[in-house]
Amino acid sequence: MIIKNICCIGAGYVGGPTMSVLAQKNPHIKVTVVDINQERIAAWNDTDLSNLPIYEPGLKEVVQEARGRNLFFSTEVKKAIDEAEMIFISVNTPTKTYGKGKGMAADLKYIELCARQIAKVAKSDKIVVEKSTLPVRTAQAIKDILDYTGNGVTFQILSNPEFLAEGTAVQDLLNPDRVLIGGEESEEGKEAMEALVAIYESWIPRERILTTNVWSSELSKLVANAFLAQRVSSINAISELCEVTGANVGEVSRAIGMDSRIGPKFLKASVGFGGSCFQKDILNLVYIAKSYGLNEVADYWEQVIIMNDYQKRRFADKIVSTLYNTVSGKKITFLGWAFKKDTNDTRESAAIYVADALLNEQAEITVYDPKVSESRIYEDLDYLGTRSPEENRRLLKVVNDPYQACKDAHAIAILTEWDEFITYDWGKIYEAVIKPAFVFDGRKILDAEMMETIGFDYTSIGVSKTQSNK
Ligand SMILES: NC(=O)c1ccc[n+]([C@@H]2O[C@H](COP(=O)([O-])OP(=O)(O)OC[C@H]3O[C@@H](n4cnc5c(N)ncnc54)[C@H](O)[C@@H]3O)[C@@H](O)[C@H]2O)c1
């Protein structure tokens, strides 16, 4: 099957960048990304490329090349479905906030709505590609919905989970470690898989494109995220042990990471992982394990989340205890709100939970983040429902200048590892803050010796105070 028209439902952090690169590398295929969010589509179509709804290094350039040539962003969902031979579903699959599986299972209502819409609109055979991260066996549910519409159209369902990491999305898409495609083992299934392989082969070597059965593909995505998050929680667990024993977690990471069986990546201790995926996907894995009665398996993976929540709480507690057990009325400056550097995504960011804990202690927080908007920060806090929106706005301020943010602060907390924080004139900041000048580095990006020479009382994760003061 030769694909000439692709539709992608969902113009978010995955759909937007993924389809931009796919279109850039396949100029012969018309790619239409559709979304029900008009504002988002308008931003994708903005002539000023700095207004794209998603910030990712290198994305502007890709969009500039392909948009209007063979890449289109639109709200006309039905039309795009009708025209396409291949439809990617890239909508959000958040954790359920109601009913059975609340707080654990993935909410598949958006996926089901897409399947029903495809079933209603399709007049010709289609390949439907699951790009969203889904519980294992979701393809069966999608197939059921599509097959029982009775309009004679046949559908092939493929699973093609996305492994990009925000902040490096374009690089990851251009040069992925692997592309995973799961499909039915029938002739039709194999044909559909080959059609998708051909699209990726435009820029990715064939040996990096894996084909598996659908269930392996669906499950592999959840497992990949669980393993990555597990490494973060593992090193974070060790960070506390370092603090009490005088070991240094940076040195421990280096020492164990040089073992080729362990490897050096994802071994950096921090205030905890965030992002829209890790927590949601592990909870989903836990829920699936429980639903099959695999309680030990579920408990094992749940511990990764428990450790992560503890690490965020521990960071906030450390600030309070160091500031003489009270932060009431004290100005605490947050450098960073995004869940990691080089993205404006704040979903599940550690900063939100640390801020919430400190606001409960009546701290007055000032936030500076190079890419996150003021409205986003307030939405994140309001969403928790811990206090009224008015109170959140009274207690937390957002500023556009890091030096202004730090002025008269009782403490500075680094919540995101933005490179620019390293380059600040910390001597100048020291002059402007209240003494003792406390800095809590939740990302371990500053040089302890430099900070202490300037005069800061510098606390970093996984290093005991006595050790860093040596
Ligand atoms: N963000 C990541 O880094 C990442 C990485 C890999 C996989 N994933 C997975 O990809 C999926 C999408 O994630 P995201 O971060 O892009 O989410 P997102 O919230 O940024 O985007 C989803 C978009 O889908 C749109 N949408 C929802 N229902 C729709 C419908 N019926 N018709 C049209 N549009 C609809 C929403 O308006 C939204 O713009 C999730 O399953 C996620 O787990 C995300």
Describe this structure in words.
The active site is at residue 277. Substrate binds at residues 162-166, 221-225, 261, 268-274, 339-340, 443. NAD(+) binds at residues 10-15, 35, 40, 91-95, 132-133, 166, 277-280, 347. InterPro entries: 6-PGluconate_DH-like_C_sf, NAD(P)-bd_dom_sf, UDP-Glc/GDP-Man, UDP-Glc/GDP-Man_DH_C, UDP-Glc/GDP-Man_DH_C_sf, UDP-Glc/GDP-Man_DH_dimer, UDP-Glc/GDP-Man_DH_N, UDPglc_DH_euk. This is UDP-glucose 6-dehydrogenase. This protein is α/β, with parallel strands linked by helices and 470 residues long. The chain folds into two domains: 5-95 and 105-204, 3-Layer(aba) Sandwich (Rossmann fold); 226-468, NAD(P)-binding Rossmann-like Domain (Rossmann fold). The protein is built from 19 helices and 14 strands. The chain has helices at 15-25, 38-44, 59-66, 77-83, 109-121, 138-147, 169-174, 187-200, 214-245, 249-257, 278-291, 295-322, 350-360, 374-384, 389-395, 402-406, 426-432, 448-454, 465-468; strands at residues 5-9, 30-34, 71-74, 86-89, 126-130, 155-159, 179-183, 209-213, 331-335, 364-368, 396-398, 411-414, 438-441, 457-460. Strands 3-2-1-4-5-6 form a six-stranded parallel β-sheet, sandwiched between helices. The longest helix has 32 residues, at 214-245. The model has no long low-confidence stretch (mean pLDDT 96). Nicotinamide-adenine-dinucleotide is lined by residues 9-15, 34-37, 40, 77, 90-93, 110, 113-114, 132-133, 162, 164, 166, 276-277.
